[in-house]
Design goal:
Helix content: under 10%
Distance between the termini: 43 Å
Radius of gyration: 17 Å
Number of strands: 10
Order of helices and strands: EEEEEEEEEE
Low-confidence stretches: none
Strand content: over 45%
Structural class: mainly beta
Length: about 140
């Protein structure tokens, strides 16, 4: 249901412009709906990928995860959330699109997945060296 870029050095404010030497967080939220939610079990396997948009950035492929998020069946909607932490040296200067994948595993094993799958994509994220302005 959502994907937000958070800037921990700036009080976890939402952002799309980041400094190359700072860590950043990506908060992903999703939900499962339907009549079968009380009997769903296993775990969500979530991963975060980055793709280069400007031909300059080198932060590509898997940058965080996979992480297993346990599922406890209950009445619909089942709401889930995970925050990825991406710390130096992974942030690299460039323009990127981030994609979080959400897969279901009955055993919480990232190599044993079912056909339940979802994803979330970010708006473009600009990671840059900053210039300090002075008077």
């Amino acid at each position: 249901t959502g994907m937000d870029m958070l800037d921990p050095p700036e009080s976890n404010g939402r952002t799309t412009v980041l400094e190359v030497d700072d860590e950043f967080d990506v908060k992903v939220s999703w939900q499962l709906t339907g009549a079968a939610t009380p009997v769903v079990g296993g775990a969500w396997i979530v991963s975060l990928y980055s793709s280069n948009m400007d031909g300059v950035g080198t932060m590509t492929g898997l940058i965080a995860g996979p992480v297993a998020i346990p599922i406890t069946g209950a009445v619909s909607p089942l709401k889930f959330e995970h925050t990825f932490k991406v710390a130096p040296p992974k942030p690299r200067e460039g323009l990127y699109k981030l994609t979080a994948t959400i897969n279901h595993s009955p055993t919480a094993d990232p190599t044993k997945l079912t056909e339940m799958f979802g994803f979330a994509e970010s708006t473009p994220v600009d990671i840059r060296n900053t210039v300090v302005e002075s008077n």
